[in-house]
Specification:
It holds the Pfam family TetR_N. The chain has about 200 residues and is an all-alpha fold. It folds into two domains: about 45 residues, Homeodomain-like (Arc Repressor Mutant, subunit A), CATH 1.10.10.60; about 130 residues, Orthogonal Bundle (Tetracycline Repressor, domain 2), CATH 1.10.357.10. It contains ten helices and no strands.
Length: about 200
């Protein structure tokens, strides 16, 4: 075997996911992963800190990526449109995750430890989104609200992108998700009234 294998990281990830599905995340060891992949523990350590990192490697880059995407969106766009433009812009970051996305979600759903890690990741992304929106002029409360909406749109669009092969790309899934959200909110908007100012 060559000293350096350009496909080592993918082999390790594939082996880990197979074992997580077959015998459960908690019952799988790093040694089993490396043996299944035909690689050494030293090679594993080159790419991942532990077995949990197989599912989350690279996620630490997401907050900075989405923040930068919001800030480089057209300066004339209002906050929510800037947020949507940013979500559509970062789709390319996830292309490598698509083949394993459904497996990854199922594995995370089976483990409270992994669910907590996923929540922590999304909270960091929401904070980065809110900070970027404030920098674009949104109020603190508006930025927090839009950031949470953005996370929901992102999660829904990503699931659709990875679960439905007929979808052309992530951007199309973002637009579809937003259209459904707008359609659902339209009847509610008609019921929302602005309180009249109290007479003096």
């Amino acid at each position: 075997m060559p000293r350096w294998d350009p496909k080592a990281q993918e082999r390790l990830r594939a082996a880990a996911l197979e074992l997580f599905v077959e015998q459960g995340y908690e019952n799988t060891t790093v040694t089993q992963i490396t043996e299944r992949a035909g690689l050494t523990r030293r090679t594993f350590s080159r790419y991942f800190t532990d077995k949990r990192d197989v599912l989350f490697a690279g996620s630490e880059q997401l907050p900075d990526a989405v923040s930068a995407a919001v800030l480089r969106a057209d300066a004339t766009l209002p906050p929510f449109q800037a947020l949507l433009a940013a979500l559509a812009d970062i789709g390319g970051l996830f292309a490598d995750l698509v083949p394993h996305a459904a497996q990854r979600r199922a594995i995370i759903a089976s483990s409270p430890e992994l669910q907590e890690r996923e929540r922590t990741k999304l909270a960091a992304v929401a904070e980065a989104l809110a900070a970027a929106l404030r920098e674009r002029g949104a109020t603190t409360s508006e930025a927090k609200l839009l950031a949470q909406v953005g996370i929901a749109v992102f999660q829904t669009a990503f699931e659709r992108w990875t679960d439905q092969p007929e979808h052309a790309d992530f951007t199309a899934c973002v637009h579809e998700t937003v259209a459904e959200l707008a359609s659902s909110l339209a009847p509610t908007a008609a019921l929302v009234t602005t309180p009249e100012p109290e007479s003096s």
